Amino acid sequence: MGAVARVTLRDIAQALGVSTSTVSLALRGSDRISAPVREKVVQEASAQGYRTDLAGALLRTARPRIIGLVCDIGQELHVEYSREVVSAAEERGWSVMIEDTALGGAAAAVSRVMQLRSRSLVIVDPGSIAPEALKGIDVPLISIGQISAAPDADLIMSNNLSGMRQLAELLSGEERVLCLDGGRSVSAERRREAFLRVMRPLGTRVRVVSSGSTMDAGWSSMHEALAKEGLKSGAVVCYNDQCALGAMAALWQKHLLVPDDVRLVGFDNSRIARSQAFELTSIDKNPREVARLAVERAVLRAEGDVSAPVFVEVDTRLVRRRTA
Known about the structure:
alpha/beta; six-stranded parallel β-sheet; six-stranded mixed β-sheet; 12 helices
């Protein structure tokens, strides 16, 4: 069987009786083409199965509408951010090139995304990326996290305290609370500081246990804590939802029921927390709003905005479910 011929701009133009330049401008959403004609071109392109030649478009376009995004796809929250960034960018007519920091490190991920001629670069959790990885970057930087990627970068930051205060109200009657910490990252430090700050006035006994951001980290640290503490009641607050899921498995293995014996809380309100299988109480970081703001800044910077760096805080909130 022979290969199917690729649909070209000329094919669409011939079908509609217009020029190839008209088709090209219409598919790019140019205002130089009337709305009715643009609609006809888009419909015909869809009917013929036309696919944009991205490589060719990049070569032909002096200012491609591309935003780079660097994140850790292994983290549920980063996946949420990437989906929302893509959605927000598409609404503005921009594309997003995503690179995973887990594949060869942050410097390699930044290098790959810049090779695709990104006009601005969004970095999720820049505190986990060494400054050397960003050397030589000549496009605007937008940070999603607790610290900025560079002095001149815009920062969209979650306000951990707003959600943590709601959590403190929920746990106000507990005598013992175990905090499975996320390690030495800036994100983990800020979450831990916010949690201890809101719990301190309650006089609740809080013990911080070193853990991590994965299910395995939550499982092992929970087992270690159970062996040392002999925990039979109280609450466990975890660095993120993946950690909480591992802690839940460890509690079950020790025949402790959630929430009857131990209340369990995660962070990020990811798909894990929202799942009917787990119904995990968690703190929501409003990734849609964070992504919208990040894309807004990325587009403005790419289009020439050189105003002072912008810092925006987005409130978090507690979403209560079955586990607490």
